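Reviewer 2 asked us to include a model.

Predict the structure of this chain.
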Amino acid sequence: MTIFQKILNGEIPCHKVYEDEHVLAFLDIYPLSHGHTLVIPKEPAETLDQLSDESAAAIGRVLPRLCRAVREATGTADFNVLQNNGALAHQAIGHVHFHIIPKEDDGSGLGIGWNAKSLDDGEVLARKIAGCLES
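Predicted model (structure tokens):
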């Protein structure tokens, strides 16, 4: 059982900022910046691709509103929304979660390295991904 499931079960307290039948949002206890908020589905799914369409849609409906609230409450205009899937992608807790991380002038917030590569097989890869959507 993950720490998020324990929070959902009421076994561990949290600083709740939002809750509905599908989604819970609360402050991160190890924030990268002031206002760092976590948004989780109540459905237990380890990675985004395992999440039901219903839970994904519920998060999609509330995420922009939560971003606006975090911006307004912190007075920070810029922010990142981060969602990791799997250990190699830096997912530390095996439950889908989104981070809303305000980016402040003092340098706090999320730091990102971007090791871009070239897209040599764009047409082939796009057709392959599109084909997987049909199955």
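The first strand starts at residue 16 and ends at 19. The beta strands are 16-19, 23-27, 37-41, 78-82, 98-103. We have added this to the supplementary material.
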